[in-house]
Design goal:
With about 230 residues, this protein is α/β, with parallel strands linked by helices. It has one domain: 3-Layer(aba) Sandwich (Rossmann fold). About 35% of the residues lie in helices and about 25% in strands. It has nine helices and ten strands. Strand 4 and strand 5 form a beta hairpin. The protein binds adenosine-5'-triphosphate and magnesium ion (MG). The site of adenosine-5'-triphosphate has 12 residues, from strand 2 and helix 1.
């Protein structure tokens, strides 16, 4: 469903992605791991079209989307939960969720029930400003907003970063629920290895802009991943 093929990405003269290939499938969680600055966010930016790749291809549902604009990719069903959440602090929780309506047809512009069953706190805080929520609540809001557009591919950039353990559990449960629906492909960027190991079906460790180690659930060796991340 998603195939990233041998992409290169440059910020000016600095190369941030070097021949990266990665795949995602419905009902599976593809984990992308690696230390700070190795290119994880750059890879997601390339997938959502926030930054152009200089070569390589991104294929989604059989279509080459490499040159599509971000809103065109969103309309195809690519949802993104950015690092640092990027919710709108002055909009209410409800208004923040409704910003996810953008790519939808008029008859689909409603908030799906499972957003509130996954994150009940959002229901109880619908009228509050996004900026008044705790970091963990904002992360739940950012995930909820991405679910509003009913993505076929959901990209999550370090959803546990700076979040308290109880909310990390809620986020983990939400990701498992979404995976078990079987219809959504999930790409999870993480540095929190235990969290990724609980949820992941396949794993790619990045270093200096390249994928340098991969494994999947059947031959998962968390110690080896940890070593690869530390090297
Ligand atoms: N807009 C930009 N312009 C120039 N260089 C950038 C830009 N964004 C990122 N970089 C550089 O590209 C490299 C990869 O950054 P990226 O944000 O993709 O890493 P990351 O793995 O997501 O890191 P982190 O774990 O800290 O979020 C880094 O060296 C970073 O400094
Ligand atoms: Mg990042």
């Amino acid at each position: 469903m998603l195939e990233v093929k041998d992409i290169n990405l440059f910020y000016g003269a600095a190369q941030a992605l070097r021949g990266v290939s990665i795949a995602a499938e419905p009902g599976k969680v593809t984990c992308v791991l690696g230390r700070n600055g190795v290119g994880k966010t750059s890879l997601l930016r390339a997938m959502v079209g926030q930054y152009p790749v200089s070569s390589g291809a991104i294929v989604f549902d059989g279509d080459d989307i490499t040159s599509l604009k971000p809103y065109e990719r969103a309309r195809k069903g690519i949802g993104f939960v950015p690092q640092g959440r990027e919710i709108f602090p002055l909009l209410t929780v409800e208004e923040n969720l409704k910003t996810g309506f953008g790519p939808l047809k008029r008859q689909d512009k409603h908030i799906p029930d499972d957003v509130f069953s996954l994150f009940p706190v959002l229901q109880s805080m619908l009228g509050r400003r996004g900026g008044d929520l705790s970091g963990g609540q904002q992360q739940q809001l950012a995930i909820g907003r991405a679910l509003v557009m009913r993505p076929k591919l959901l990209l999550l950039d370090e959803p546990t970063e700076g979040i308290q353990p109880s909310i990390i559990k809620d986020i983990g449960r939400a990701i498992s629920y979404l995976r078990n629906l079987g219809s959504i492909a999930i790409v999870l960027v993480e540095q929190y290895l235990d969290f990724a190991c609980e949820l992941g079906d396949s794993f790619a460790v990045m270093d200096r802009g390249a994928v340098k180690f991969t494994c999947d659930r059947t031959n998962l060796d968390a110690g080896e991943i940890s070593r690869q991340m530390a090297l």
